[in-house]
Amino acid sequence: MRDQIVASRRKTREIDVGGVKVGGDAPIAVQSMTNTLTTDIDATVAQVQRLESAGADIVRISVPDPESAAAMPEILSQTSVPIIADIHFSYKMALASLEAGVHGLRLNPGNIGSRDRVERVVKAAAERNISIRIGVNAGSLEKELNEKYGEPCADAMVESALRHIHILEEMNFSDIKVSLKASNIPMTVAAYRKLAAQVDYPLHLGITESGSLFGGTVKSSVGLGLLLADGIGDTIRVSLAAEPEEEVKVGFEILKSLGLRHRGVNLIACPSCARQKFNVIETVAELEKRVAHIHENIDVAVIGCVVNGPGEAKEAEVGITGGYPVHMLYRDGEKAEKIKQDKILDMLVEDIEKRAAAKRAEMDADQEKS
Question: Taking the complete model, does pTM exceed 0.85, yes or no?
Answer without folding.
Answer: yes
